[in-house]
Amino acid sequence: MSETMFTAEGDVSPLVFSVNPRYPGKVGLHSGIAKGTSEGGDEYAYTKGKAHVLYVLIFDGLPASEFDGGFDYPTRTQAPGTQSLVNWFLNVAPYGVFTYHDPFGKEHTVRIINEALDFSLTEHDFYSGSITLKETLG
User: Fold this and answer.
1) I need a labelling partner for 11 at 20 to 30 A (CA). Which of 2, 33, 36, 47 fits?
2) How many angstroms separate the CA atoms of 97 and 111, rounded?
3) pLDDT tens digit string along 71-104?
4) Residue 23 pLDDT more than 90?
5) Which residues contact 44 (CB under 8 A, 6 or more apart)?
6) How many domains does the chain have?
7) Which domain holds residue 23?
8) Can you list the alpha helix ranges (DSSP code H) found in the chain?
9) Which DSSP category does 137 fall into?
10) CB 82 within 8 A of CB 66
11) CB burial class (10 A; 0-12, 13-18, 19+) of residue 120?
């Protein structure tokens, strides 16, 4: 297995995780088609948006250095030469797309869809939680 990593264009250093997400992972494939039944009982379908995949990355025992190491919360800045998930969530890709390198060596163009980064301090200097990434297809 490869290392899980986030990369972005520009002067942003990559975020490399020393812990891969829990396997088996959770992946949701959405067709982008809305289906329903009219009051008269007729079935209908229409395109609501593009098809997409949701990747739920569940991390157990993510080191604090990768979760928020070197991040200064009052100024919302990352310490030079370091990178963290908190910085990625708040500054690097809050609206934009980036590349998710999965543990199997595949690359996905994704965006973070979480409104909140919900991780727990599970033991000293280790965090556990999940983040959801969306990859638009086609």
Assistant:
1) 2
2) 5
3) 999 999 999 989 999 999 999 988 889 999 998 9
4) no
5) 35, 36, 37, 38
6) 1
7) 5-136
8) 64-67, 85-87
9) -
10) no
11) exposed
